[in-house]
Amino acid sequence: MDTTRLLRLGELALPGLAVGLIAGAVAGGLAGIVGQPVGWALVSMLALGVPLAILGGGYGLLVAYRKVRIGAFAPVALFWLVGFPLARLTHEVLTYLVLAGEPRLPPDVLGFLAYQGIISAGFAIGFLWLHERIAPRWWQRMAPRNPVAADVYSAYAAYAKQVYEQREARRRSRGRATTQQR
Amino acid sequence: MVDSSKVPVSGAGQPGPDTGKAERVWRAGGLDPMPIRKLPDAPPAIHILGPTVFLVALGVGMGESYMWPRLVLVFGPEIRWLFLIGVTLQAVVMLEMARYAMATGESIFTGAARVFKPLMWFFFAVAILVYVWPGHLSAGAAAFEEITGIPWVLTACIALVLVGVVFTLAKVIYNLLENLLSVLIGVLVVGTAIVASLVGSWGDLSSTLTGMFAFGYFPSEAMSSTWFPIVVGAIAFAGPSGMQQMWYTLHLRDSGAGMGAHVPKIRGLRHAAEQEEMPARGFMFDTEDPEEMKKWKGWRRWVTFDALLLFWGITMLVTVSFTVLAQAAARENPNVASLIEGGDRDAALGAMSDAFASVGGSVLGGVFFGFIALIGLNATLGLFDSFSRGQADMTYFFVPGAKRFKISHIYAFFLWAVIIFGILILNFGPADGPSGVLDILAFLSTFAMGAYCVVLLLVNNKMLPKPIRPKWWANLIIGFGAVFYLGMLFYSLLRFGVVVS
């Protein structure tokens, strides 16, 4: 894969990557900051932030290549049902690795994964919510040089155009109604 | 009161000046008939963002983050079945509120006026009585004080002025608020999910979830004069409380949902000159046209998705997360339940902060207070806008002479009035701490909620054409809501003689 193609993929994945990273960094990272050396805090932050960012970026690619319906909840919920527990498991294992010098699984792995799976539904809603706010605008900016971004943005634009046309039609009908009332 | 139940979908009205033909109208109640217009197409895809963001912002408030976790600490997770009932009831109320607003482009207040004008004035008065108090703001500001040390009164006053300035400068208030709240709620939801995933455990979650289905559980201590009014208030605080559901009809209209598309949006004061004239009444679509009914079904699907996933789902998620945190807090500090029972109202928030801190230290405990502050900010933004929007709507359409002003001016008047009053109360009034004010609001809200269930039944069954009236089961649930809210309120009054805890 050449550099340009990688760059284009990165552009497509960036919004999801950013949402995942920020989510992991804000809450997960702060967990490690207090009373710990800066290096450890950074590791803790990255241990959760990076897996979430990679998965978030992956989801962005699925949307960009139109493998999942834009704005729909079911695919993102399924995606994070698997992804979120894995990210948290990675976080736990890496945390023990840094703290104790050797990797260790959480005590009740199945219970842990089940719990994280349920929490993932909430994370999925928040992720989709933020991604839908950020991604279309970013892809619009990338559209002139990235054909896939242009394609997915055009899907959003088609939707927006439809909404706009409806609004214009209503405005015209409202204008007529006002004239008639006079 | 005019019974419109036997009026045909469209009737003969005033002849149109251009066509010479009689304009088709829908006559409903004592106000002007609604002209028949085309129903716009429903959004092509079920899209995640809609006016429900306001309900979520308003609904996910102190009830979810404070009152219910508090009850769980005192009575155990089984008490949460009442929360499930409360939120599910609210989801159905939301769908029924949307029915009238999307079918007519009118607010539920105008609907109430169509049935019987004093009903609407009742809500006008209740809104002022309940919502001028800055209680919602003081809770968030107090949490902010925990993080920064800045006195909460100062933060609250600055926030009040900022909210006023932002809404005054906004070109179209709805767009600004939807964008702002969307980001804030997105951060809140993602952050809450992650913190709950760090702090909570499978045991906490399963007891919280199974507690939701412990139907009928009601410990004897909850039947005391101390706790019963608090439990009643907490049920009213499950999801959007008080008049928030009524204001949702105004947001639906401004978002252009259904026939709301035929009504202009409210603009900020700075852009009031661009405000289009508001039509004197709403519009109706031809319910005998199969094509129109098909579009109507599309709109109903859209709003049902909003109600179930966004409103019910997010409200449940946040409250389950906070309850899990509360249980973790009880483990950290076993005395917390007795502290709360003893009347230490800030113990719950402090103990939950401890639970965060137990995972990652004091900064994470601070993050918890950050979330409380964020929830307070969301609620403040939503409430101030909604209150002003509701009062402006009723004033503009029903106070004689008010149409001399633009609706933007009236909106700004109510906004700044409530801000100035809030600042005065915070500095000189009986601002006796955050949860004291919230308890009063919770109880007063209950009456308004019982009343709007009755109004909903009347409006949707009398003022809408038959094909789009609610099904019998929806009426049954809303009827149950009226009995539930009012019954609990009056039971509390008669049994304990307590109105406010």
TrEMBL record, chain A:
The chain crosses the membrane at residues 12-34, 40-63, 70-89, 109-130. The keyword Transmembrane applies. It comes from the Bacteria. Keywords: Membrane, Transmembrane, Transmembrane helix. This is Uncharacterized protein. It comes from Prauserella cavernicola.
TrEMBL record, chain B:
Residues 1-23 are annotated as: Disordered. The keyword Transmembrane applies. It comes from the Bacteria. The chain crosses the membrane at residues 45-67, 79-98, 119-144, 150-173, 180-202, 222-243, 303-326, 363-384, 410-428, 440-460, 472-494. Keywords: Membrane, Transmembrane, Transmembrane helix. The keyword Transmembrane helix applies. NCBIfam families: Nramp_1. This is Nramp family divalent metal transporter. It comes from Prauserella cavernicola. The lineage of its organism: Bacteria, Bacillati, Actinomycetota, Actinomycetes, Pseudonocardiales.
